[in-house]
Write a structure and sequence with these properties.
Outer membrane protein OmpA, OmpA-like_sf, alpha+beta, four-stranded mixed beta sheet, OMP_bac, signal, 60s Ribosomal Protein L30, Chain: A
Length: 341
């Protein structure tokens, strides 16, 4: 009887140990099993069957650098830097997807499916690495991504496996603008899967070359904001750093404001300068006021706008549009507002 109890006790302990070990290696509990909010596949390329979108971002116009180097391996970072100027920097509409794929599929199977689909749709393969994509080749891809999960904000956090790493970049020539698609497949340690390989995943970048919309501001919508909200935010006016000198790239936007004032001869405006919260409060208030004054003077001296119709003020960071905790928020806060008195 004593032996029987001892045997049962040992069995319970062994089951507990095995359960604890397998639990530690299980799929992360917070990993979603469905697409992130407001994400979708790109219309030019569908996802590998059964995968879901872990990260998604689309911007109407931005830049992205795609690896184009012939470098096969690099043991040190300075070796990669030597070849960095061979990479391809593109501008246009940027759409990024990070797909997590069911574990039963190999990186090779996924990669060959993408390769075949691109060829069948008239894409030209510009660069391809079928195996052993080392971290100095794939690292630049991840350094350009702002993953939403804090634990995935670095290349090390994602932990792509070198041996399963495969990469290709393809191009489709179109009259309306070329399209470049970058595909990197590998097993990623962050996502669990069979120890120690991790879960297969695909990082996909689509760059559609488009002309930059230089309309800058729609005066009709600006006037609607002034009439309905009493103010309109203008983001096309840029100044030199820590200075009230207006940069040349601001001229088209200022010309639009001048047109608005000429088309509405009874319109009077307060021109209000805004900054983000970086730096000293008093300094930012003074700087924003000087910048507003510079804009008023530019309109008066270069476009013959009656000075009595315009008044300048500066409030620095005291009326933010968004949080100052992020760069995106700070960009929204650096603006000029046209306010109806």
């Amino acid at each position: 009887m004593i032996y029987k109890k001892a045997f049962l006790t040992i069995m319970v302990i062994m089951v507990f140990v095995v359960f604890s070990f397998t639990t530690a290696l299980a799929f992360p509990a917070d990993t979603p099993a469905e697409d992130v909010t407001d994400s979708s596949d790109h219309p030019l390329i569908s996802r590998f069957p059964g995968s879901y979108i872990r990260f998604y971002e689309s911007k109407d116009y931005d830049e992205f650098t795609l690896p184009f180097s012939e470098l096969e391996t690099a043991e040190f970072e300075d070796e990669y830097e030597e070849f960095a100027d061979k990479d391809l920097r593109l501008e246009g509409k940027i759409t990024q997807h990070f797909y997590v794929v069911p574990e039963r599929h190999s990186s090779l199977e996924i990669f060959r499916n993408y390769e075949q689909a691109l060829k069948e749709n008239n894409f030209e393969i510009l660069v391809q690495k079928d195996a052993d994509v080392d971290e100095w080749f794939s690292r630049p891809l991840y350094e350009q991504v702002n993953f939403q999960d804090a634990s995935e904000t670095s290349f090390e956090g994602l932990d792509p496996d070198k041996q399963s790493g495969r990469y290709l970049m393809a191009k489709l020539s179109r009259a309306e603008g070329d399209v470049h698609i970058s595909i990197f497949t590998a097993r990623h340690g962050y996502y669990g899967g069979s120890w120690p390989d991790g879960q297969p995943a695909v990082f996909q970048v689509v760059v559609e070359e488009t002309e930059l919309d230089t309309g800058l501001i729609d005066m009709e919508s600006v006037m609607q904001d002034i009439e309905s909200k009493g103010k309109a935010a203008i983001y096309g006016i840029h100044f030199e750093v820590d200075n009230d000198e207006i940069e040349d790239e601001s001229v088209p936007t200022i010309e639009k404001i001048a047109e608005l004032l000429k088309e509405n001869p009874d319109l009077e405006l307060n021109v209000v300068g805004h900054t983000d919260s970086t730096g000293n409060l008093d300094y930012n208030i003074d700087l924003s006021e000087r910048r507003a004054e510079s804009l008023v003077e530019f309109l008066v001296n270069n476009h013959n706008i009656d000075k009595d119709r315009l008044s300048s003020f500066g409030v620095g960071p005291l009326a933010p549009q968004a949080t100052n905790e992020t760069e995106e928020g700070r960009e929204q806060n650096r603006r000029v507002e046209l306010v109806k008195p």
